[in-house]
Every structure is written in C-alpha cells, then in structure tokens.
C-alpha cells in the first residue's frame, strides 16, 4: 500500500472517523475541480481509509433502510 499522509492503520479510531468525514466532504470538489492526478489520489486515499474502517468494524451497524428490502418498502 502506498500511503500519502498518515497510514490509516496508525490512526486512532477518532482520527480515522474524522479523516473519513473530511474526505467524503471534499469528494465533490475533487471530482468537479481537481486534476486527474488529484482525483486519482483522492480516490485511492478514500479507499485506504474505508478499507481500514471495514477492517476495524466488520460488524458495523447496517441500517435496514439502506438494504434493497428497505428500499422496496419505501417504494410502497
């Protein structure tokens, strides 16, 4: 893994959450206005952070509304 910035594995949980929130907040800006390199870097950093989150929290809460069955129920 080639990491720019702090290796996600070295982040405390609170720092990981903060980094994830920030990177998701800046996604549109990177997509609409960033260079190809900046967008590629943003994408890879997002993947690094999300992969670390999923490693740490494999039993994370899944909102039933975010499942297909929940979407079908909303459509009724």
Estimated helix fraction: 55-70%
Biggest sheet character: none
Total helical segments: 4
Strand content: under 5%
Mean pLDDT: 91
Q: How many domain modules? A: 1
- Global structural class: mainly alpha
- Report Rg: 15 Å
Record field, number of beta strands: 0
How far the N terminus sits from the C terminus, by CA atoms, comes to 45 Å
Topology pattern, helix = H, strand = E: HHHH
Q: Can you tell me about this structure?
A:
- The chain is mainly alpha-helical and 76 residues long.
- It has one domain.
- It is built from four helices and no strands.
- The protein has helices at 13-25, 27-33, 36-56, 68-74.
- The termini are far apart.
- The mean pLDDT is 91.
Observed structural traits:
mainly alpha; flat; single chain; 63% helix; 4 helices; 76 residues
The gist of it:
63% of the residues lie in helices and 0% in strands.
Topology record:
Blueprint (H helix, E strand, L loop, with lengths): L12 H13 L1 H7 L2 H21 L11 H7 L2
InterPro entries: DUF6158
Pfam families: DUF6158
